[in-house]
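Protocol step 4 of 6: structure prediction from sequence.
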Amino acid sequence: MNELIFDPLEKNEIRSKGGGRKTSIKTDRRLESNLRILVEASTRGDPESPLLWTCKSTYNLCDELTAMGHSISQKSIYTMLRNMGYSLQGNRKTEEGGNHPDRDAQFRYIHDKVKRFQRSKSPVISVDTKKKENIGNFKNAWKEYHSKGNSPKVNVYDFIDKEKGKVAPYGIYDLSRNNGWVSVGVSSDTSEFAINSILSWWQEMGCHSYLNAKRIHINADGGGSNGWRNRLWKIELQRFANISGLITHVSHFPPGTSKWNKIEHRMFSFITHNWRGRPLIDRSTVVNLIANTKTKFGLTIKARLDETIYEKGRKISDEELSRIRLRKDKFHGEWNYEVRPE
């Protein structure tokens, strides 16, 4: 009879490597996806950093996952969050900007509304303007590999080149399809520019991905060209709704919380990493670098130069504002509302 042969055990070990019962992290296929869903609404962090953090404790997450039918310990959740790039930070770092009493409630409201739209296969986009960039042979932060002594030579001073000027990239990120659009503007960052960028995304990408869509949900910051106090933004939203035929829902993030906007973490940060260390010598370089931004998670971006000159300081009268087909949500109607096509 053949004798069974076992690998010798290492010193102080009672079983061979790979032996024993597998952990729920490896056997429960739904565990990681459900954990991501639970922490998604409370994800925070610097969009330029790969490290994210959550204000939910591992004990609370353990209770919620157990209620969902998972068998897991608090220590295992801690391990999973670390592997997913999360860390738990103290309360002192959770206060970002203004501390509105309904700030967290607004985040939950946006999160729930996004999920409702996604379940109905309706488009959900996150929009924002990336910071303006000087065009010319200027130093760009970060470093790239070059052969010794062959690093790019750039200008000593960052004085604006009057001929090349600056560019203002306005981005649209599709939360469901993990793709985006960037309009690279050469003029002022106005609400007209913002809506033209969203309209370009819809006509070039969105309408082909959402053939039967009747509504859209736009997530935006509370200020700037897409701010909730901006009258021109609402006028331009009416124009977008009329052209697209979509009931246009908008939710704004509370003041001082722009880093929560998904476009910051999921698109702009990767654009910044893609062009790091490269002088943005002309407009076509900017467009090409943005369009060539990709990630291992499948992010793709289209980009186009917008050379339209937009008028700054355009005034909107009360009469013009009253003609907008705007309906406010019951919860914080100043932050959450919809504009219907005429």
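Step 5 (inspection) to follow. Residues 46-51, 90-97 have pLDDT under 50 and may be disordered.
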